[in-house]
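User: Hey, my collaborator sent me this sequence without any context and asked if I could get a structure. I don't really work with proteins. Can you help?
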Amino acid sequence: MKKLLAYLKDYKKETVLAPLFKMLEATFELLVPLVVAAMIDVGIAGGDRPYVVRMGLIMVALGIVGLVCSITAQYFSAKAAVGFATKLRHSLFAHIQGLSFSEVDDIGTSTLMTRMTSDINQVQSGVNLVLRLFLRSPFIVFGAMVMAFTIDVKAALIFVVAIPLLSVVVFGIMLISIPLYKKVQERLDRVLGITRENLAGVRVIRAFHREEEEQEHFETANRELTRMQNFVGRISAFMNPVTYVIVNGALIVLLYTGAVRVDAGILTQGQVVALVNYMSQILVELVKLANLIITVTKAVACGNRVQSVFEIQNSQHSESVESGKDSPADTDVPVVEFKNVSLTYKNAGDKSLDGISFTASRGETIGIIGGTGSGKTSLVHLIPRFYDATEGQVLVDGQDVRDYPISELRRKVGIVLQKAVLFKGTIRENLLWGKEDATEEEMREALTVAQATEVVASKAEGLDAPVSQGGKNFSGGQKQRLTIARALVRKPEILILDDSASALDYATDARLRKAIREMKDSPVVFVVSQRTSSIRYADKILVLEDGEVVGMGTHDQLLKNCEVYREIYDSQYQTKNVGAGKPEDSVEYAGAVNKAGGAETGAGEEIKTGGEADGAEK
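Assistant: No problem. I've predicted the 3D structure and written it out in structure-token form, which is a compact way to encode the shape of the chain:
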């Protein structure tokens, strides 16, 4: 938490002026009992009405000046607290953006959201109250005790006993509460995680009619949070009644002592009233201090949680190499090369990839296929360095990806992830994510290659058509084509399509692949797909099983030599003569190219015989 206070350095003036004006307000407040004592002992006792009026006006003046000081202090403390929270939130967001996928996976999205919102808001409230009350309350408590000594030493000894007792209660409860509030925030993380998961998967929950189970799951976590909050709340609530008992007990003793000393002629009635007022001020300020302690306790717990995120360092480090390094002139150097690469995810029990080796040259299309969980996405995520290989090397243009600055490496790569994500704004703004200074012509060209021209043409606003959060106002196929266009705008050296055509029909998928092959810049294309038709014409196909390459070659070679690939192919295309090793006997070819409106729609795509349904996507 202490390290976070560095974000207050730009608000040094406010952090000084806020407590200073609060101290001035407290000073004027400490003078009020003395004015009341003089009013009673001189004005009322002597029947001097003008004196009473003058003292009354002085009290009003003290109140007005104190109010001005209080408002000024509120302004400076609010300005410092809000500015502090703003800088902290920006810095935390930037730090999270700099973490690798491994750290983000380990921390969890719901936890990071809690840190960014609830935790920082609690820290902001803590800073605000500390600047206003942290010096004021102790100043009035000890100032009232000092002022009591100026009136009567024996009566002031009651203050000496009461204040330490109150301090033990306040700080004792604070020490107990701090770790408990940390547990409350952890329970809140869990509730937020369940809420986020349910909102993101509401369609799936309803499709499988699991509303009641998910409601029970949420209510269980919510009850646990409520139970912990009630437990901490009871401990914190114990503070106020105990402080009231101690202060009111001290008031009783003070009134008795004052009455005895007034009767003895040692004290005046006005002085007794002043002592009671000072004790009342102590009561009020200690109640404020108790509430401040509760807020500060929460703020410290939340601040420590925020600080724990800052202490998580990015596990990926890059060496300083020449920025803007061009692709090597030697065309024999592969654009992408894997050398005996293995990957083990953090806290995973086994390798997700093991001993992967292959090369990809300029203009080649590399198909990657395999069963669910075989490591297809893990493999392509190593190229833009979303994760680091735990063994072996991944080379881009002959250079280890760990030696590139992250920004330089990812400028070479255009990637379309499995889940098509569009951001709120317009189609134009989403395309500009690929290249900030892209011209309209470049965007139109990317849309044409991605087969997304009709998506834009169907909107009256064209490229300025609105996109809702997550692209909810587009179909799955439209979102996939727009995300492909976004990747193509930057004209990448390496294009990764991670199962990004799963929502496209076969004809559109074929046209897309043909357009990508005919691109002028001839990027290396990695196509991750579950269907063999999407990768059939790749220059090289990698077949993965349990994180290992079990087959590598062209479509025809793999049908003959790779049992895993043949099983995947047979599962998608019913065959008549699997045992003979001739699955193509079961299909009819519509020729090498099937033209429809001038565009390639089949390119040798398999067509079922006998009107059989397409088994790959049904």
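In plain terms: The radius of gyration is 36 Å. You can pass these tokens on to your collaborator as they are.
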